[in-house]
Design brief:
With 366 residues, this protein is of the alpha/beta class. It is 47% helix and 9% strand. It contains 15 helices and 8 strands. It comes from Spinacia oleracea (Spinach).
Length: 366
């Protein structure tokens, strides 16, 4: 087993690419969906289970009492039927694209969705909650579903599976499921750099260690439930988010201080994933979303983007959630890296999903 680090600039990545060229030439280019589905069937990949924040919440927050919602237009304007679902995006999330490519579902339902079916439980489910983080305090500040609570929901999920397909089959489904975990942004933006509690308790370096320890604890709990395959999405370049550039920068250039804090945290997450791979005997990947988004910002034409400093919603400088509600939007969201002042556009999520799918086969199908 190996850990694959997407977008890393280390010599380790160079070695991995070289090995891939020598032994797995069919994966140099992104596989088409039919090929991925064939591999999924051959290697009996059972389902996709998602944990995290607004980057992967398909609408669980619609079912709880919190102000962190997006179940109103213009959110969802490019979703199927042009309807808002609770996704903080104009359309689909990256995990929706991944699930669709693998053949699990065209979109991933939230675990709290009252319309979720038994069949959905077999293929793809998201436990994510917008506003959450590795630090439970982050979730408490916004009254959202903490990571520890999301893991508790995984245990309830297993009970539902056992009632539906039996104990043995439920264990098999969890053992062969892929778990994706995506959070960390809110721990900085809503917590450490905004609220006074954690800075009084931790230096920035020690807070990063604390976040990684919470991530490790959650993964250990997932492992106890039966998880064997997990991908962790790193924290994006928050210093390049329009809202951060507007309030802590000049509105045009990325805020270096913020991005350095992200790079340090991502490095620690990556190292912990290596430890988890060996110590818990899990198949793991680290998705370097930082470098993917940074690449799109620095080379927009390569990805078909024309706007990298503002979101599509409203002025694009500060609108998010309620402040985006009913606002006018840009003419073509696909030309924007960001949908609102924080979240990527559907087009950017598609780019992220394509990068994830490039490494799925080499790690989770073998």
């Amino acid at each position: 087993m190996e850990i694959i680090i997407m977008g890393s600039k280390t010599s380790c990545m160079g070695a991995i690419i070289l090995l891939s060229m020598l032994f797995m030439p069919t994966f140099i280019h992104a596989l088409m969906a039919p090929e991925i589905r064939e591999l999924r069937t051959k290697h009996r990949l059972s389902s996709l289970l998602v944990f995290g924040d607004s980057s992967v919440d398909p609408g669980n927050n619609n079912r709880i009492t919190t102000t962190m919602k997006s179940n109103f237009l213009p959110y969802g304007m490019d979703f199927v039927g042009g309807r808002p679902t609770g996704r903080f995006c104009d359309g689909k999330l990256g995990t929706d694209f991944v699930a669709d490519a693998i053949g699990y579902a065209s979109t991933i339902p939230g675990f709290l969705d009252p319309n979720i079916t038994k069949e959905d439980l077999l293929h793809a489910v998201s436990f994510a909650s917008a506003g959450s983080g590795y630090d439970d305090l982050t979730s408490n500040l916004t009254q959202t579903i903490s990571l520890s609570k999301q893991v508790e929901y995984l245990k309830h999920y297993k009970i539902h599976l056992e009632q539906y397909v039996g104990h043995k089959k439920a264990n098999e489904i969890l053992r062969k499921a892929v778990i994706l975990l995506s959070m960390g942004t809110n721990d900085y933006l809503q917590n450490y750099f905004l609220e006074p509690t954690r800075p009084k308790q931790f230096t920035l370096d020690k807070y990063q260690d604390f976040l990684v320890s919470r991530m490790r604890l959650a993964i250990e709990e997932m492992h106890k439930v039966g998880a064997k395959r997990i991908g962790v999405v790193g924290v994006p370049p928050i210093g390049c988010m329009p809202i951060v550039m507007t309030f802590t920068g000049d509105g045009i250039h990325c805020v270096d201080k913020m991005n350095k804090a992200v790079l340090s945290l991502n490095s620690k997450i990556q190292k912990q994933m290596e430890a988890i791979r060996t110590q818990l005997n899990m198949k793991t990947i680290f998705v370097d979303v930082y470098n993917i988004i940074e690449s799109a910002i620095n080379n927009p034409k390569k990805y078909g983007f024309s706007e990298t400093t503002k979101g599509c919603c409203g002025s694009g400088s500060f609108e998010l959630g309620e402040t985006c509600k009913g606002a006018e939007t840009c003419q073509n969201p696909d030309e924007y890296v960001f949908w609102d002042a924080v979240h990527p556009s559907q087009r950017m999520y598609k780019v992220l999903a394509d990068e994830i799918l490039k490494i799925f086969p080499t790690t989770f199908f073998y």
